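Section 5.1 Outputs to date
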Amino acid sequence: MQIPLKLKRRGHQTLQNQLFDQIRNLILSGKLRPGMVMPASRILSEQLGISRNTVMLAYERLITEDYLQTQKAAGTYVNLNLPIDSVVLKTPSQSSKISTKIYEKRHPVLFKGRAPRLTNIERNKIDIDFKVGRLDPHSFPIKIWRRLILKHLDKGSGNITEYRDPTGLMTLRRAIVNHLGPARGISVSPDQIIVVSGSQQALNIIARLLINQDSIVVTECPCYQGAIYVFESYGAKFCPIPVDHHGLQTEKLPNTTVSLAYVTPSHQYPLGATLSLKRRVQLLDWAGETGAYLIEDDYDSDFRHNGSPLTALAGLDPYGCVIYMGTVSKSIGAGLRLGYLVLPEILVTPAKIVKALLDNGNPWLDQAVLADFIENGSYARHLRQIRRIYLRRRDCLIAALKSHFGKVSLSGLGGGMHIVWHLPSHFPTAAEMQEVAQQIGVGIYTLEKGGAHDFGYQEYSKHTLVLGYSSLDEAQIQEGINRVAKSISVKLNP
């Protein structure tokens, strides 16, 4: 690396002393941290235009005074064990005074928002985790993925070094179109597809297009936390509509003008209902009459356990009002950060501009591999395999709950990767159940901790738990519910 050093040729100090002082100050200020490798004396002398001997002598002084260390194989690096008296400290009072004076002059931060917490900070305390949306790490198709990566790397050096279409690789967009036709009943052109880095980026693109201060957004209640937080950060106002066992209660949709409605019709998040065909038509007619756009978040529709999936809203849309969101986070892996938007034609051009402003496109290699994975049939085979696995795990979880708790009230059984447990009134609250389970190393979650938002309607959340089953094998599921049952039994019968 190049170190920011500036030597004065005609200064009062020798070049060696200047070099010594500047490197020492960089170490003391924390800019050069313990273990950082220093440039070789030859390279630094060339950078500064001074003799190599000058650099070597400065290095020797720094080594003598324990600021630097040297080893044959590792070279010269900042001492891993700096002496205590070499650390320059500021008192807390000095730091706070300086900070206060500086920040009083700064322009205020205009952004106001919050973010959903997808990672579990308590994971180190939990060995059986029913966290929603987690995949079984053993399900990742590592062998074929590795082969496809090597295949594309062999011929792809030019693709890596060049900027590409911000809306996504054309081969991937074509593959998505070919998948959506038979799988979701959606017929579109590749030009209507924009590849994104997951649902959150998709939501930000939509919000930037359609939401400003005080825009009204219709949502399900309860609904996905991440969507609410995005719309909220753009200044949206919300009109929450309750859901029942048939999904969104369309008869309660407002007659006023709204910007858009955010829905999860295939597997309502978090309660798990599937929006009936009748209500899908009613929702589309409402959007056609009011001029609202509909965001269809199809986050886990690849996993349908009972019967065939209904055609997506986007496949029924006669008004050009549905914005379809898809992702591979739930089917292949969240770490890929790949999803896609299917847009009405009128939104394609402005959405492309927004995407280009955000990131100039997703990594080429990941897109190329995913396109190949879909087109060669591997994705379909992968989905068939994990559907069978997840169905067994769902059935195991249901059986374990019934075995320990008798007749249980459950929802969301028709598909997806989680179920919802509606607790009896004599049970502890969902928050108390979550706390008790955590103490015995089991993660079960309230709606809020499961990534849902209830708009303050406590009847939804006070006695409701979400349990993801996709990342746990049958033995772990049985053991986890067994532990919870024993702990709750003690609490119910002290």
